[in-house]
Amino acid sequence: MVNKFQTAAALVGALASGVSAHGHVTGIVADGVYYGGFSLDYYYDEENTGTFPESVGWWAEDLDNGYIAPTAYNTSDIICHLDAQPANMTATVSAGGSVEFQWTAWPHPGPVITYVAQCASDCTDPSLDKSTLEWVKIDEGGFDVPSQTWAAYDLIANNNSWTVTVPSELPTGNYVFRHEIIAVHGSEALNGAQNYPQCVNIAVTGGGSATLSGTLGTELYTPTDPGIYFNPYTTLLNYTIPGPALMVGGTNQTVTATTGAAAATSAVASSSASAVAVAAQSTTAIAQSSTAAAAASSTAAAQSSTVAVQSTTVAAAAATSSTVAAQSTTAAAAAATTQASSSCNKKRRHARDVVV
Ligand SMILES: [Cu+2]
Q1: For the chain, how many helices (H) and strands (E)?
Q2: How many Å apart are CA 231 and CA 189, to the nearest integer?
Q3: What's the rounded Cα separation, in Å, for the pair 79 and 85?
């Protein structure tokens, strides 16, 4: 079976031969409709012809397909990438709907995080001051301790894409969605992390009544945040996803098992005597928790492909045939595929040569 790390290793091999590194979002699918993102070629289109195509992706001058370093966390470049300017087009999504972000072939480990910021009027307004945008985290994926797997590897396994559910509580309005991978393969060094923020304009319709409390882009991170500056080359017992707290109604999808036709079994246990256990069988199992990180035990459960999850409060799991397996707003949930059984060796197979 090809696993995620082997996939990643293959990508690294390709990169080592001189293929352009890093990555960016090439397009999105919002409620089933595809919209092209910003292309690096648009920079040259603008230089040569004075115009460039419309896209929902913000203009950015990351001509090396590169990243923003922690040394720039207090500059406007962290907001929507280098010298970013508002996109000239806007996609539409319904509250409760989905947005899929499609990346170029992605090579690095790290968390995947998505924020939204509401625009005072139209997010395509060239005079929009991005430094005033207040970002609310609506989705995050970090590090799954039981399988020692990064969200970015789930993204890779999912054809280099990441799907975000727009919280139904999010008010109707014009938003900039700031979708980001933070590559952590260099995070053992101060300022070694790499942020890849990608902004797109999306109008949210049919929204709810959440009161949004956002954070300015220049205040999202510091170079010494525990999820930014740490040693990724050891067995991690926990990982703190960088940035402000997830909004109520947001999604934590740290655990995402996505391989092949493997049947996933999720066992959820509660320490409060009344254990609730729902087994989920799914080809794509996603465990979600709005407020708590999944706590896991390495204790093998009866079945070889099962990861046991322990919670101090209450846990519940719901299963569908092919997508969401477990969901809990108060406690923890986790799901795993048969990959979990081989997780012990994954870390060691993650070679340092992913440094690009
Ligand atoms: Cu890179």
Answers
A1: 5, 19
A2: 8
A3: 10
CA distances from 144 to 167, 220, 254, 286, 344 (A): 23, 22, 6, 12, 13
Nearest to 115 by CA among 243, 253, 290: 243
In the reported structure, the alpha carbon of residue 339 is separated from the centroid of ligand 1 by a whole-number distance in angstroms of 26
Rounded-to-10 torsion of CA 166, 199, 65, 355: -50
Please, are residues 7 and 108 in contact by the beta-carbon 8 Å criterion?
A: no
**Cα–ligand 1 centroid distance for 65 (angstroms):** 8
Q: Which residue has the tokens 């072939």?
A: 105
pLDDT values of the chain reduced to their tens digit, one per residue, 356 residues: 333 343 444 444 333 333 447 999 999 999 999 999 999 999 999 999 999 999 999 999 999 999 999 999 999 999 999 999 999 999 999 999 999 999 999 999 999 999 999 999 999 999 999 999 999 999 999 999 999 999 999 999 999 999 999 999 999 999 999 999 999 999 999 999 999 999 999 999 999 999 999 999 999 999 999 999 999 999 999 999 999 999 999 999 996 444 333 323 332 222 232 222 222 222 223 333 333 333 333 323 333 333 333 332 223 333 323 333 333 332 333 333 223 322 222 333 333 333 33
Please give the distance, rounded to the nearest whole angstrom, from the Cα atom of residue 156 to the centre of ligand 1: 14
Coil, helix or strand for 181?
Answer: strand
Q: What is the CATH number of domain 22-249?
A: 2.70.50.70
Using only C-alpha atoms, the chain has a radius of gyration, in whole angstroms, of 20
In the 8-state DSSP scheme, what is residue 127? T
Structure tokens of 335? 């799901």
Bridge partner list, 140: 113, 252
Residues 118, 311: contact at Cβ < 8 Å?
Answer: no
For the chain, domain boundaries: 22-249, 254-347
The rounded Cα 335 to chain-centroid distance in angstroms is: 18
Q: What separation in Å is there between the alpha carbon of 100 and the centre of ligand 1?
A: 22
Q: How far apart are the CA of 67 and the centre of ligand 1, in A?
A: 8
Cα 238 to Cα 293: distance, rounded to the nearest angstrom: 9
Q: Which two tokens stand for residue 343?
A: 């997780």
